[in-house]
Design a protein that fits this description.
The chain is mostly helical and about 280 residues long. Helix content is about 75%, strand content about 0%. The chain has 13 helices and two strands; from the N terminus they run H-H-E-E-H-H-H-H-H-H-H-H-H-H-H. Helix 6 (about 130-135) runs antiparallel to helix 8 (about 160-185). The longest helix has 27 residues, at about 190-215. The radius of gyration is 20 Å and the shape is globular. The model is unreliable at about 60-95 (pLDDT under 50).
């Protein structure tokens, strides 16, 4: 009776829990190759998962009624956001096309962040600028190639294009991690702050794209990607601005900042667990 009363007293929270369970089960079925038939150009499982995550998105944006407390609404939004955005393997089963579109949606932010990096050298002390330029010299070519591959994958999501994107996102991630370590060595406080802030913005986008690529990759492919990652996230994490990362993710997805910061922290933990 207590369980029934709890469901009755907290209908939105109960609904969110049910939808999270549906999305999780659907993702697990998809990972095992169980489709339950076709639905349009996709499968019944992917359709159910997509509907569940869409409804979670509506719940996350629901401000609640007059009787709802601020705390309970914030918790509900956080749960729904985490379920929607966490780059964990079971989310990859929902829709490869949706993930591909999300990757492409991140590319303008990537290009903007790289452009900021290009202009940052002029803000640094004369002795520090060459160090920063040398550390970030490969950003333009690597990011442009990743953007092109993301668009190619959206247009034609084949295994070959995915393999290229898997390799390229790790390449860019390694360049970014290296740039963070080198920027941290800059001794002038103002120069170091400018350098880290610029590289940090690129790091946030690259981490988001890496997580999305992970979500449509097999365990073996993720392991291969992680093996190519020699500069680990744990090494650069002390130089990352998690609050800034949360703001970028929140702005991208149109969600509150605090749940987005939670998502960023969980995504980092997932990437570190995968070996990045």
């Amino acid at each position: 009776m207590n369980s029934i009363a709890n469901i009755w007293n907290h209908p939105k929270t109960s609904a969110a829990g049910l939808l999270i369970a549906i999305a999780t089960i659907a993702g697990a079925l998809s990972q095992q190759g169980i489709t339950l038939g076709t639905a349009g150009t996709g499968t019944v499982v992917s359709l159910v998962c997509g509907i569940a995550t869409a409804l979670l998105g509506l719940l996350a944006k629901d401000p609640g009624g007059a009787s709802s407390s601020t705390g309970s609404t914030a918790k509900l939004g956080a749960w729904a956001l985490i379920s929607l955005l966490l780059p964990l393997p079971f989310i990859g089963g929902c829709s490869g096309v949706t993930v591909a579109q999300d990757i492409v949606n991140w590319t303008p932010a990537l290009q903007s962040a790289v452009a900021t990096v290009d202009s940052t050298a002029s803000l640094l002390a004369p002795a520090d600028a060459p160090i920063f330029v040398a550390a970030t010299v490969g950003f333009d070519a690597a990011s442009n190639l990743l953007v092109a591959q993301a668009k190619a994958y959206l247009a034609n999501p084949t295994a070959g294009v995915l393999a290229q994107m898997q390799a390229q996102v790790v390449t860019l991630q390694q360049q970014v991690n290296g740039a963070l370590l080198n920027s941290a060595k800059i001794t002038d406080p103002a120069s170091q702050q400018h350098a880290l802030a610029a590289v940090q913005a690129v790091a946030v986008v690259v981490s988001a794209i890496l997580a999305l690529v992970q979500s449509i990759s097999t365990k073996a492919q993720v392991a291969q990607m992680a093996a190519q990652s020699t500069i680990k996230l744990a090494q650069v994490r002390p130089f990352l601005d998690e609050a800034g990362a949360g703001r970028m993710v929140a702005a991208h997805y149109g969600e509150p900042t605090e749940p987005a910061r939670t998502q960023v922290a969980c995504a980092e933990a997932a990437e570190m667990q995968a070996g990045f």
